[in-house]
């Protein structure tokens, strides 16, 4: 690998790209926000920062970490003319798996390669390099990407063909969102009955109700009122929506998924685009 490109320096992308710089990989970084690019260049002096996508002509591998499929598609199509033949694009965004398959066809027709490798674990694990990474694509392309991904995550699991990683990410986030909502509703009901919600969390974590929210979010971000986990409610709503759409596309029953998706969308609209996903705790409280 001559040089690694990294596009998308958001809350997750910024520390992920930083870890690659810290691993002595030659990184060329880009974000659409000039101030973010400047901040990354100042914090990680070993990296180069690009002002536009045409600067990626020397990159034979590029990671994209972007908000949604619309932005991924637009960015990759603009990027294709700059990349050398045989270049590999690793899309680590949370994207629509059906659209990922269509994008992979366009990338292949241009003489380049694409895999999807979305992540789970949040900002803290992005900083620590312990993300869970789920990959989809040609096995040879995934093996080509694996040494790079190893700097970002400890669990790297190939889940299927192109798009399977994005499908798995959306389904994972649906399960996570359902657990979060169930936990919030249970805590509020218990508190109104007179049970200390902190005690409830302790009991849940020693019982069959234990889940990621009870272990890592309930006390830390919900009961504390901090609501600053680093993952937005809008993104959770987007991911659960992708999972619900996927179930419909493959004719799978997901009745609960549709309800969870509707709740997340309504909460995001009510609480605003900057709301943290743990603020679902506020949303489910009856007035």
From TrEMBL:
GO biological-process terms attached to the record: organic acid catabolic process
GO molecular function: NAD binding; NADP binding; oxidoreductase activity, acting on the CH-OH group of donors, NAD or NADP as acceptor
Keyword Plastid belongs to the record: no
Cross-referenced InterPro entries: 3-OH-isobutyrate_DH-rel_CS (IPR002204), 6-PGluconate_DH-like_C_sf (IPR008927), 6PGD_dom2 (IPR013328), 6PGDH_NADP-bd (IPR006115), HIBADH-like_NADP-bd (IPR029154), HIBADH-related (IPR015815), NAD(P)-bd_dom_sf (IPR036291)
Keywords, ordered alphabetically: NAD, Oxidoreductase
3-hydroxyisobutyrate dehydrogenase-like NAD-binding domain span: 163-283
Domain of life where this protein originates: Bacteria
6-phosphogluconate dehydrogenase NADP-binding domain sequence ranges: 3-160
Keyword Signal: no
Alphabetical list of PANTHER family matching this protein: 3-HYDROXYISOBUTYRATE DEHYDROGENASE, MITOCHONDRIAL, 3-HYDROXYISOBUTYRATE DEHYDROGENASE-RELATED
Name of the protein described by the UniProt record: 2-hydroxy-3-oxopropionate reductase
Organism: Cupriavidus pauculus
